[in-house]
Amino acid sequence: MSAGAEYRCWRAQLETRRPGALAGPSLRAAWSVRRSLPVRIEGADVVRIASRMWGETLPVLRERAVACGPVLLTVPRACVELAVPLGTAATWPALATTRCVSGAVVRCPALEIHARDGLQVDGRTWLYPPMPHDPQVPDVTDGHALADAVRTALSRADAPLHVREGFRL
Q1: d(Cα 128, Cα 151) in Å, to the nearest integer?
Q2: pLDDT, tens digit, for every residue of 97-155?
Q3: What would the DSSP string read from start to end of 28-50?
Q4: What are the DSSP calls for 45-93, one per residue?
Q5: At how many degrees (to 10) do helices 51-63 and 143-158 cross?
Q6: How far are the Cα atoms of 109, 153, 159, 163, 164 from residue 169, in angstroms, in the given order?
Q7: Strand 15-17, strand 37-41: pairing
Q8: Which of 45, 47, 52, 82 sits a CA distance of 20 to 30 A from 103?
Q9: CA 20: distance to chain centroid?
Q10: Which has the closest alpha carbon to 15: 23, 55, 5, 116?
């Protein structure tokens, strides 16, 4: 069966993917024809953060030296999607512009589809692609650290401009 024909058959079997695992045959077939494929994330929960809030959250994560796992920009949803440890959805706080779900289905582009190169497939691009063979890059992002960073970013966004810029009256 050709890669294109195999890609067209993806609906028959929704592939599951664990963070850090290698891509299965359906996903590899989709990637070979420059498409993405919906995959059910197994063994992790998924946090969705509005893109505009991600721009405020990322600096907080960097300030705190929190290692970030893969980050997928999902243009149709205007959000980023990050895998977090399984069970995080049960304790995720009610934070504006975020949602944490178990059993998420994520449309997954090939690892080389990267925002820094201006590439996008089906409205998706990796800001930080999975790096399964790099011990420095975690497969998931710490859910507690992420929630705390979002909380901080939200409070900074609500702060008056002179406070955000470090000015004192």
Answers
A1: 22
A2: 999 999 999 999 999 999 999 999 999 999 999 887 788 889 999 999 999 999 999 99
A3: HHHHHTT--EEEEE-SEEEEEEE
A4: EEEEEEHHHHHHHHHHHHHTTPPP--EEEEGGGTEEEEEEETTHHHH--
A5: 110
A6: 48, 22, 14, 9, 12
A7: parallel
A8: 52
A9: 13
A10: 23
Q: How far is CA 124 from CA 34, 74, 80, in A?
A: 12, 5, 9
Closest CA to 147 of 81, 97, 95: 95
Which amino acid is present at 84? V
How many residues in the chain? Answer: 169
**pLDDT tier at 94, thresholds 50, 70, 90:** very high
Q: Are 56 and 115 in contact (CB under 8 A)?
A: no
Amino acid at 135: P
End-to-end CA distance of the chain: 69
Positive or negative: CA dihedral 69, 147, 47, 52 = negative
DSSP letter at 15 equals E
Cα separation, 4 vs 10, in Å, equals: 10
